[in-house]
Protein 1
Amino acid sequence: MLKMGLVGLGSMGRGHLSVLEQLMADGVDIKLVALCDIDPKAFGKVDATLNLEGMEKADYDFSKYHLYSTVEDMLENEELDLVNVVVPTYEHSTVACKVMNKGIHCLSEKPMALSLAQCQLMIDTAKKNNVRLMIGQCLRFWGEWALLKEFFTTGKLGAPVGGFYYRNGGTPTKDWFLCREKGGGGLFDQHIHDVDMVNYLYGMPKAVSTVGKICIPGSGYDTCATNYIYDENYCIHTENIWVNYEGGFRHGFRADFEEGTVVFDGTKIRAYKKDYSEIVLPDVPQLGGHYPEIKYFVDIIQSGAANTINPPESSMDTIRIALAEMQSADLGGQIVEIK
Ligand SMILES: NC(=O)c1ccc[n+]([C@@H]2O[C@H](COP(=O)([O-])OP(=O)(O)OC[C@H]3O[C@@H](n4cnc5c(N)ncnc54)[C@H](O)[C@@H]3O)[C@@H](O)[C@H]2O)c1
């Protein structure tokens, strides 16, 4: 059994709490024992009406857990095997390294960090302490994206030709998200999911060209559009916007292959062959990304199996692409090579 802690009980941390309580109820061999947040209000009732992912509840029974206001205190007083780190992005690397330096496995939320140096430090710290590190790039575990990945690995519709990946939603309400130095803006925070998918599905691009607009002063790019350049000349395009006023959050994709097309409009995934006939797809479990992601990490820690889906080195490559996109946007869309 893995004894677990959770650091950061904001919107996403509460989402993790919901998932961990569900995993325990479903008999997964974990026991959440400790929660930590620097803000005492985090252990109270909150307004969860802005919750876009449908994971966070307004109220939890926090009396079941040992509560801490610093991560140092929690690590000093508990014997933990795995800690989920769900603090603001600019603190991911610092907090995750504190956890791993105590010999504890760590699941740290996306984006991995805002610089390659911080990403490398996280990987080196995991190796030095012989613990497992995984970054919460949850789309790799999300039903529709996991099913799409199968078309790439099986080659069922032939070689990839290209695709379009997008997400749009409203503006985050907490200040740190809108500060380029703290959250990386919409490009690093929200768009990173599609960057990670491009990396996961097609491999590393040679270069990128990104145009972006800063609508909120001081923010990273609140809207951005990227083309990815590969030797294979794939036609891949992504778009992200978090100053979108339709209400709600939307994401989806269209992936093109030599022998067909796979489309997800945010509600249902469909696949078509070259003769336009529809392929019958298996039912996709509607669990979101976090439940299968955390379950997978627990499984590979307990079995000792390799992380074949989401190794931290691949999350660092995703940051490498996002940094090139940021640089390209700063240069007005100029092509930036990825080193
Ligand atoms: N995987 C996803 O789909 C997804 C979705 C949303 C957010 N996220 C990521 O999750 C992270 C958290 O986002 P959020 O929306 O919950 O932010 P948030 O601001 O709502 O919550 C962060 C919480 O961390 C606490 N905190 C800050 N520093 C701390 C520290 N050193 N020790 C303990 N607690 C600390 C804050 O008090 C706050 O309660 C971000 O990196 C974000 O990008 C991931």
Note: The mean pLDDT is 96.
Protein 2
Amino acid sequence: MQPLEWDAETMRQMGYRVIDLLVDYWQTLPDRPIGKRAARATLEPLLAEPTPTAPQPFEQVLDEFLRKVLPNIIKVDHPRYFAFVPAPNEYVGVLADLLSAGMNIFVGTWMVGAGATQVERVVIRWLCDWFGLPDTAGGLFVSGGSVANLVCLAAARQRYPDALARGRVYYSDQTHSCVARAWRILGLREEQMCVLPADEQFQIPLDALQAQIRRDREAGWLPFCVVANAGTTNTGAVDPLNALADLCAEEGLWLHADGAYGAAAILTDEGRQRLQGIERLDSLAVDPHKWLYQPMMAGCALVREFEHLRDAFRILPPYLQDKERGAVGVDLCDYGVELSRNFRALKVWMSLKTHGVEAFRQAMEHNLRLARLAEQALRARPHWEIVSPATMGIVAFRYAPSGWDAARVDALNRALVDAMIADGYAMVSSTILRGRVALRMCTLSYRATDADVRETVRRLSAFAESLTRAAR
Ligand SMILES: Cc1ncc(COP(=O)(O)O)c(C=O)c1O
């Protein structure tokens, strides 16, 4: 047998062991602590070692992972992980990733990966249909929201030949940092990015935007793109897409929306209502690894005119010339930044087919309801202020004991995040809203229950009261 090969029976045993382990993990997840924030000083000596030379039994390596690695992560798939953006992955999606990695399916060119490419095109078409994008629309899978935004914005920049020299782009201060990073990667200077302070609803202020575009034109800038939010990370806010589409049509601007967090909520009543106008976008980032419950590394860049991506990305080197002959189709390497592309669409395809879309809609409605429940539970207790009501599955709030100044309240709320992590039952995260610290709960897990939410709020209150008492 070759050095890296295994016999069939051993391979089966190794695989069964991993599946058993995963199923046990998920079964016991609600009873486990959320995980811990590990100190670098502990972890470095724990895991430092030179490149292994002598072979070790697989079981031993797996055991080392279980003992040394797993206890030192925070479990983003935990039902009570309400921090940042939860990542509750769905089992069929996990198995699809296993298949895709197992067969190492390449989805860069049609020549090599036709069947997989066609599956990806089908899934992209489903998404485009959900958003009401026309037949000319298309897109592709990327690693996640950051790259999805980058790919879409590259297409936007390509449409405006003067963009690098004197282009200007617009978005609110609630926009995810990956958008500024994308513009930076694409060569825009800081002064070309106009960041507008959001209004009271955490939305982009339309009048200020319009006035800014007018002033910029007069000053010789070329306004060329507005980046809207279709669900912000902070509060779930959605910018007024219809009004932005009117403005961008009038001004000849590309309208992109970052829907990495919120766009998938189009399947729900609340999402449909908030995302009105999404069908008018030039491009949209959406992340199946967030609200479609897929394992990480599944974002999608969608554009109204699929060929605009090709205009931005295609280069044909001699060593790929064979793909241009014979049964030619769509070479997805020509539409984005990656040539070696794995089969990310498989998980969405298998997961949606196995469950049917209605199951996803119900899970999302459950998530939205849990955020409203968290808001109600907070409102029912003293000293909690709702900073942003439940919106697209996110509620933002703070504990504000009467008579405390802003700085003390900020410090107390930051301390609450740490107290919750140390407790281990649930996790929330903090952000800054209108200059003040706010906590946020993002109830995206399909595994979370009403009791999980209620008990999390109860513990938050208990810690808040005890921290307040200790500070007096
Ligand atoms: C609104 C929004 N946009 C973009 C991103 C970045 O996505 P990713 O982490 O998949 O790169 C996130 C991540 O949470 C997000 O919430």
Note: The chain has three domains: 8-73, 97-356, 358-471.
